[in-house]
Fold these 4 entries.
Entry 1:
Amino acid sequence: MFVCGPTVYDYVHLGHARTYLAFDTIVRYLKFLGYKVRYLMNITDVAERIVQRAEQLKRDPFELAREYEVAFLEDMRALGVTEVDRCERASEALPKMIAQVAGLINRGFAYETETGVYFEVQKFPKFGQLSGQNHEELSLRRLELCSSKRNPEDFSLWRKYEKGLAWDSPWGRGRPGWHIEDTAVSMAAFGEAYDIHGGASELIFPHHEAEIAQAESLTGKAPFVRYWLHTGLLNVGGRKMSKSLGNMIRIRDALREHTAAELRFYFATVHYREPMTYSHTGLNDAKRRLNILRKNLTAYSEARTGEDPRTGGASATLAKHESAFKRFMNDDFYTPGALTVLEEFADELGRIGQKVDQHSKANLEAGFRKMANVMGILS
Ligand SMILES: [Zn+2]
């Protein structure tokens, strides 16, 4: 599984938190089912936005990127994002990107101009399929304004820059395009095809369309990725939470007021693909529900055990809740349903604590915690 990581030019906000928590939960659930998961994330430390911000601040772009990469990893740890196996920086995969760009030129999918190397979208008829756009619609979307391109929909694989953040290549000094960064990083780790690619829904077009076009044109094999998972936007007051709109809440600021478990519970109340509106009412409601769940669990843990060895009854109770939990989660990771199962389970535990014998009691609690841990709502 590969998920598009952040472009490290500023602090990450709750919109990012929602995305990375969703994928953390998805991996936890896959492991709960017994799958082995290799989860790779890239760190975009080569990008126009980093160069621009560094110029504004009169800073070195690499230093700036490292600083925000450290901040990002701190924020992820604070949220309890534990499942990423490896983060790979774009800047460390330059030879792989250059090899892919050269390969695309050799195979006739890309061409060089005085400003860079571009992918010729018309050569890849599937372009637009992931986002459900036809060729007419695509021709109206101008991806990158540049007069040297053959067609407005072509996107850059390499941009020529003499100075600043730049590397040597067969096409002179310059920087890779953003889309080829991720294709190079993920294919170097997983080969020609892999199972899951995730990211925010705003990345479907053009970023993920471009990734498919690059990879499948290079290998001649399809599909490049078996499942695409996209998280919905986090809105505030009817608009997307973003740095440019000035309505963002940094993760580190949110964590001063709310615990990671509270934020995880809150985000899990909406299916990851749906857009979500951030609100205090919603967050407070999630906190209230989490408190009740915890009180029930504490009451259960502290209750004196009964003499009645209802082991059979206890395992049936666990099986009932576990199958309901799986039914929701198997339906495209429907966390809102899974939360209600955990609440009902906790409620039942709160009522039966004094009735079960010690052995059953421990089993039930372990079973409950295993499911709650998928959602990350107890830590
Ligand atoms: Zn990406």
Entry 2:
Amino acid sequence: MIARTHDVAAATALLAVLLSQPLHSVTLATAVMALVANQIGGIAPDIDQPTAPFWRNLPVAGIFGKIIGRSLGGHRFLSHSLVGLGLFGFLNYWLLNFLHPIMPRVDIGLVWWAFMIGMLSHLVMDSLTKEGVPWLLPIPIKFGFPPLRRLRITTGKKAEHFIVLPLLLVVAAWLFASNYTEISAFVDQFRS
Ligand SMILES: [Zn+2]
């Protein structure tokens, strides 16, 4: 999947989870941090791909990306598995606890979840592609959905641009529309 699809998928997943609980207790600082963490989580697994958007914006991108990519076992390896998800979850927990003293108004538990939801959405979305995802590493089998490989999507091709991405946007719009009252009440509390 391309980066844009991952961004939208991560945000849609976050929206779905956030809306399943009362929004009013979330502070603005938490909401902003959660969104940032969610978007980072949404592209984090591609840290193993030297050409990924994760690296493109950094000056030393090429070399650094290659080193990290190799140590994670190449594209769609460790960072695209449940073990990787746990590892990133641990690092994320450690980092957030380290940063908490400088951002006391942020609910780091929620920010942690936002990152994890973003990362999980990445693995789910990549499972729809022909390549599949090695969910159960160290068992070296790549899983995909549907199980029949030829029914899956090729990254960056028409099906992704014209079916998957629009579908995600429809789901996001539907979530917004069906929770409009709650969302506008949430936004209003920051106006005053
Ligand atoms: Zn990926």
Entry 3:
Amino acid sequence: MRVGMGHDTHRLAEGRPLLLGGVRIEHARGLVGHSDADVVLHAVTDALLGAAGLGDIGDAFPDTDPAYRGCDSRVFLDATLARLEGAGWRVVNVDVTIFAQEPKLGPVKDRIRRHLAELLRLDAGAVNVKAKTGEGVGHIGRGEAIGCQAVALIEARE
Ligand SMILES: [Zn+2]
């Protein structure tokens, strides 16, 4: 068994869709990035790459590559799952904490959890999504950014 962690932060701006774990959340502002800036999928992808000893999302999918401009972050997750599978690994469970002052994620965290489980091809019980605010301080607390931490456990397939 191997464990990996991932962390990501993206800035919030008007005129962008807000995607968290592949779920579109109704909000006046969304996350800015080279891709669709889905901070949850980026953190989960990094956790999986970390667990398998495969570097980070920036190595695997450089943000200088025009192919990834505006790209759906599910592409990163799918490609990473394929690499893990190719190397003989399967995902055991994933735990995620999203840091957002707004919008309030309590009402949507279960939707994000179920969607993430689908993307990871896991039972919903093997995926956990927690939501925290920034306690009103720092870039997250001021509502300037949303952050995400993820931990993933993988094991060798029989
Ligand atoms: Zn990112």
Entry 4:
Amino acid sequence: MLGLTHLYSGKVRDLYAVGDDHLLMVASDRLSAFDVVMNETIPSKGRVLTGLTNYWLHEVESPVANALVSCNPFEIETYVPGFADATSLHGRAMLVRRADMLPLECIVRGRLAGQAYEEYQRSGTVHDMAVPAGLALTDAFPTPMFTPSTKADEGHDVNISLTAAAAIVGDAVLAEAQAICLSLFERAAAQLATAGLVLADTKFELGYVDGVLVVCDEVLTPDSSRIWPADAIRSGENPPSFDKQPFRDWLSAQPWDKTPPPPPVPAEVVAITAQRYVDCYEAVTNRPLSDWYGS
Ligand SMILES: Nc1ncnc2c1ncn2[C@@H]1O[C@H](COP(=O)(O)OP(=O)(O)O)[C@@H](O)[C@H]1O
Ligand SMILES: [Mg+2]
């Protein structure tokens, strides 16, 4: 594509080398669940993921060091000749510094949900760590928790304790990652709170660029986060969230064993899911998606 070498396709993103030091990361409209990619795509999803990442890397109070160079098609053109005319990529592509990725998914949890809730029900712990007894689904932890998981090349990521994470990257690197992630989480959560939104949890990916640990990949998107309308939260109940929940609800009602091939996703589920992504972009940024590149 545009003469670039294709390096990797993840579930959602396609990565291309731009010289030795940069990557073009293109967020597709692919939708995945349980690590399986559906056959249908969600219109505008890739632009929402990229637009939100760009928003959070620039518009959080005191922005965090990160790998993003630009999403602006005319700036990308200076690195990737021909990009300005490749309008189907506009808004979904990010030019980034190529990083040496930390082999951890850096999850931060402010509230009890998802896999952490399942573990808590089983054992009263979260990533093998002690938390208060008597918490219900959606309840807040006393303070946000840094809860890494492994980054599996094959199969599912596994939630691990801080001790296990330190055994992978070392105490000093883990402490630095924790500080970066908790601080970004707290700033983002405070900013979302002013819009009536609760950041329940999110996943960051960090990597080294020129020896500095920086935030990479997608940032605070509906694919990497749970974001809830504050006024819809009821302790013990699953709140409506700006994410794939309607799709997951539909999927869990299907007779599917969570291995490929996935079941066909009906048009109305595609439409509701697409609307959730657009709503998320607009609620978080307070801007219409039509103002973002690639409209
Ligand atoms: N700046 C970067 N340098 C190198 N790799 C990166 C950078 N940012 C993100 N990545 C990697 O690119 C991939 C993004 O593609 P994605 O579709 O999200 O993959 P996955 O299915 O593995 O989550 C991830 O493996 C992520 O770790
Ligand atoms: Mg990913």
